Automatic annotation (TrEMBL):
This is GST C-terminal domain-containing protein. PROSITE patterns: GST_CTER. Pfam families: GST_N_3. InterPro entries: Glutathione-S-Trfase_C-like (IPR010987), Glutathione-S-Trfase_C_sf (IPR036282), Glutathione_S-Trfase_N (IPR004045), Thioredoxin-like_sf (IPR036249). It comes from the Eukaryota. Residues 70-232 form the GST C-terminal domain. Belongs to the GST superfamily.
Length: 232
């Protein structure tokens, strides 16, 4: 059995890896980090453990492994399970790259664009604030355009396929697409967009899976145990 420790920043890409570990049925430890955005970028206590502080980061039998796509491929290959496609299909490879190469750039940039504006606004004169807001709105429009295009392509695929693997079980593309697509079901989402029916049905299929439910419970329990409550 592996000695796996996953560093999970709440509400981040590392959710992909915790979900996969549950689907593969492998034992793992999880260290919870809470994101902070006050500085205008996203930081967390992860830098206490790993220099660049990126989530996900994991230790597999003592080896530091990073990049969600790499971690997911490594775990899928090393710990085959009937629940998950073990040898990625061409569809799986395409959608795994699409998640990080098309969906995340639009969503992540849109989110950082608003976080950055909030962080600098207080330091600017009213005139400068107007300029910053106009610039931010311009960028938001560009990110929204490319994000909506990506969401439409993903939905078109899901209209004729159950999973991004193209097969009858989730593959690396599904694990990679989960994080950006769940974002759109939250009250504040980066592009202010709603998901189309086939994508919503895919999310429902994931939420119904015991592996996904175990991931949600494990993260909630670990958060309760590891994150101190704010003093009132
Ligand atoms: N391509 C990397 C991106 C990792 C990444 O940037 N993660 C974000 C959280 S979703 C993060 O750690 N942000 C904090 C930072 O950039 O310092 C991956 O897929 O693992």
């Amino acid at each position: 059995m592996p000695d796996l420790t996953i560093h999970h920043m709440l509400g981040s890409r590392s959710e992909r890896v915790v979900w996969l570990a549950e689907e593969l049925g492998i034992p793992y430890k999880v260290v919870i980090h809470v994101p902070q955005t006050g500085s205008g970028r996203i930081t967390s206590t992860l830098t206490d453990h790993i220099k660049d502080g990126k989530a996900p980061s994991a230790f597999l039998d003592g080896e530091l492994i990073k990049e969600s796509g790499y971690i997911i491929e490594r775990l899928v290959q090393s710990f085959p399970s009937d629940n998950v496609e073990s040898t990625p299909s061409l569809d799986s490879i395409y959608w795994a790259h699409f998640a990080e190469g098309r969906v995340m750039p639009a969503c992540g940039s849109a989110m950082l664009n608003s976080v950055a504006l909030q962080a600098v606004t207080k330091k600017l004169s009213p005139e400068e604030q107007k300029g910053a807001q106009a610039y931010q709105a311009h960028l938001a429009k560009l990110f929204r355009g490319s994000g909506l295009q990506a969401l439409a392509e993903a939905d078109a695929f899901l209209q004729t396929h159950q999973w991004f693997s193209g097969g009858d079980k989730p593959g690396i593309g599904d694990f990679m697409m989960l994080f950006p697509l769940t974002w759109f079901t939250k009250p504040v989402n980066p592009l202010g967009a709603t998901l189309a029916p086939a994508t919503l049905a895919w999310l429902e299929r994931i939420k119904a899976r015991p592996g996904y439910q175990k991931m949600m419970k494990r993260v909630a329990d670990e958060r309760k145990a590891q994150v101190p409550k704010p003093k009132l």
